[in-house]
Amino acid sequence: MKNKLREKFLHSRKAISGKAEKSQLICQHLAQSEFFQRAQSVLFFAGTSSEPNLLPLLESNLEKKNCLLPFCGDSSFHAKSIGDLQDLQPGKFGILSPPPSCRNFAKEHIDLVLTPAVCVDLFGNRIGMGGGFFDRFFADFSGVKVAVLFAEQICERCPSESHDVKVDLLCTENGILNLKELPT
What we know:
alpha/beta
């Protein structure tokens, strides 16, 4: 079920038009949010060409916050500090990544994680690319988890398993939804 839903939303995500404009709106919503403004350390993601582009938001906060990106290993990732976008290089899966020389940043000091998703439902269940990287990272993470995606990627119901970790909020070009405040 998950794989079929993932396939469907990956295919439809490629066809979403206006990604640059929508990404700009997403960055504006995040920058204006109280949780982002309060956060001292933020784990961003450098997405694929079909995902929202958060790099402008990351770059505009390099001097203000601890800006972090995932550095992927075989089955997990570490958060690494970023000082300059020029340092990024293609990493695992061809996604821009910090070089190994960037310092690791302790998970317990991260306030906010902006996570990619193939689709998310209004209960906080998210389907990623299937590697489980973010679910493993979230297993003992106590900060705020925000799924960042285009509005077309919100689905009625995502199947979830015991190891799946729900997100707290979701951000699209249309705004931010606090999923903990929605009726169940």
